[in-house]
């Protein structure tokens, strides 16, 4: 009898909780209707996010379908479980959000906590003044002059890649090109961002490669972590669960700390990103930026940044951001480019002719200036990024009340805005026969025919890429 009573109490409590949840979500799911915004009908209790939660398809593909279903509208409403989301489809409105009215949408809106996720304190994740401060410091490290200064590091890694291909080519072996290129980009980023040589091409099980693989390759724990952050990010943070696994964070922080310590103890000067970060740490600005930087901004003293991070965490966060932004995206883009070239031998032959001609003009060497002259290569990479964008969706969070131009729709602070990059890139209105790989879409003539904000592989505006 007592057990039956407890069961009845438990069932009653669950029914009450279900009723409260149902009432709450039914109130949420009229948010866009009340504001006169077209929307996709949500489903209890996940809104429009079921496929993303179940990971049946990628987020980019899901939003591409949303884009198709809502074709004809400039914007429309969706529901990410209990959170209203605005989907942008009009290029002019996208331009407003990313550029003209950037002050209303400067944050990505991804939840994280620096105490739980110290390496999350990077340019991609930070918001508000913290992002502005870090960006003002790190932006000078990505100028064309400094990238040119570090170009030799890339050439050296390229020579190792050539050696890696030589023997299998002579034997006519089959290679897992995706894995080889992942090892190549790991070598490049390790050298560029951390100032170390990890030799992943010659040693596939190098420690740096193993930890990089552990970070980016999906696992059951990572999937659970992603679902929790997607559904209840505040709970994840309260439970002390970070976006980046603790052991991965610990390894890269250790690498950054030991590298900086070695550089400073032995007075090592190397033309890489880590050296520039050390210079920021010691001087508060880079050598070329000791005075006004030309934009009316005097470099901030280093203590302004230390108010947000310890030095080791800041260096590690910046370096791991370069690793995450460059390692996986670069390997994927190169792999997809080679895949498309294999399917299109005519394009491949034309590219080979261009490379041979440019190399001959530069004495058979790979040079920074030579790469700039490879216009057809640039078109191929651009078309690859159209078909396979590294960021299939772009996210912004409304940071203050915003009225959408030429409408009466007002977005409240905290509303998430999503730009379906993949959907736009496959819209035949902008890119006829979008499934076809056609580098000539990126001739100057063709680019001038279409709206600039219909091609957004890395976003646009002050937060482009980062």
Automatic annotation (TrEMBL):
One Gene Ontology cellular component: endoplasmic reticulum membrane
Subcellular location: Endoplasmic reticulum membrane; Microsome membrane
GO MF entry, a single one: heme binding
Keywords, in A-Z order: Endoplasmic reticulum, Heme, Iron, Membrane, Metal-binding, Microsome, Monooxygenase, Oxidoreductase, Transmembrane, Transmembrane helix
UniProt-annotated binding residues for heme: 465
Family indicated by similarity: Belongs to the cytochrome P450 family.
Protein name: Cytochrome P450
Species of provenance: Coptotermes formosanus
């Amino acid at each position: 009898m007592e057990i039956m009573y407890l069961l009845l109490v438990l069932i009653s409590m669950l029914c009450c909780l279900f009723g409260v949840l149902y009432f709450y979500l039914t109130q949420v799911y009229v948010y866009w209707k009340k504001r006169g915004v077209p929307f996709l009908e949500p489903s209890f209790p996940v809104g429009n996010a079921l496929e993303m939660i179940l990971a049946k398809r990628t987020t980019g593909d899901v939003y591409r379908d949303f884009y198709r279903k809502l074709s004809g509208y400039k914007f429309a409403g969706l529901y990410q479980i209990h959170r209203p989301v605005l989907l942008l489809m009009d290029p002019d409105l996208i331009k407003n959000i990313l550029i003209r009215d950037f002050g209303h949408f400067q944050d990505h809106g991804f939840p994280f906590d620096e105490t739980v996720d110290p390496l999350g304190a990077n340019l991609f994740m930070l918001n508000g003044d913290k992002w502005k401060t870090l960006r003002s410091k790190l932006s000078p490290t990505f100028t064309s002059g400094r990238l040119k200064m570090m170009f030799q590091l890339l050439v050296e890694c390229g020579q190792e890649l050539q050696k890696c291909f030589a023997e299998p080519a002579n034997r006519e072996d089959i290679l897992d090109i995706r894995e080889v290129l992942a090892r190549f980009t790991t070598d490049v980023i390790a050298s560029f961002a951390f100032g170390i040589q990890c030799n992943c091409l010659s040693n596939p099980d190098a420690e740096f490669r193993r930890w990089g693989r552990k970070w980016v390759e999906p696992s059951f724990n990572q999937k659970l972590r992603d679902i929790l952050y997607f559904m209840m990010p505040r709970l994840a943070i309260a439970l002390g669960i970070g976006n980046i696994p603790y052991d991965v964070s610990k390894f890269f922080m250790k690498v950054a700390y030991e590298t900086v310590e070695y550089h400073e103890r032995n007075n090592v000067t190397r033309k890489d990103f880590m050296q520039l970060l050390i210079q920021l740490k010691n001087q508060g600005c880079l050598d070329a930026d000791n005075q006004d930087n030309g934009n009316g901004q005097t470099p901030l003293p280093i203590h302004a940044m230390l108010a947000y991070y310890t030095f080791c965490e800041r260096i590690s966060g910046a370096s791991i951001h370069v690793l995450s932004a460059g390692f996986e995206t670069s390997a994927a883009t190169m792999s997809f480019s080679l895949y498309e070239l294999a399917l299109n031998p005519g394009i491949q032959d034309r590219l080979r002719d261009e490379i041979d001609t440019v190399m001959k003009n530069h004495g058979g060497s790979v040079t920074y200036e030579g790469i700039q002259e490879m216009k057809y290569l640039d078109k191929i990479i651009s078309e690859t990024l159209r078909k396979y964008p590294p960021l299939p969706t772009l996210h912004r969070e409304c940071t203050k009340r915003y009225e959408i131009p030429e409408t009466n729709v007002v977005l409240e602070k905290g509303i998430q805005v999503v730009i379906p990059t993949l959907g736009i890139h496959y819209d035949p209105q902008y890119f006829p026969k979008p499934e076809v790989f056609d580098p000539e879409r990126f001739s100057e003539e063709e680019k001038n025919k279409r709206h600039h904000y219909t091609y957004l592989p890395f976003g646009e505006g002050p937060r482009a890429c980062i």
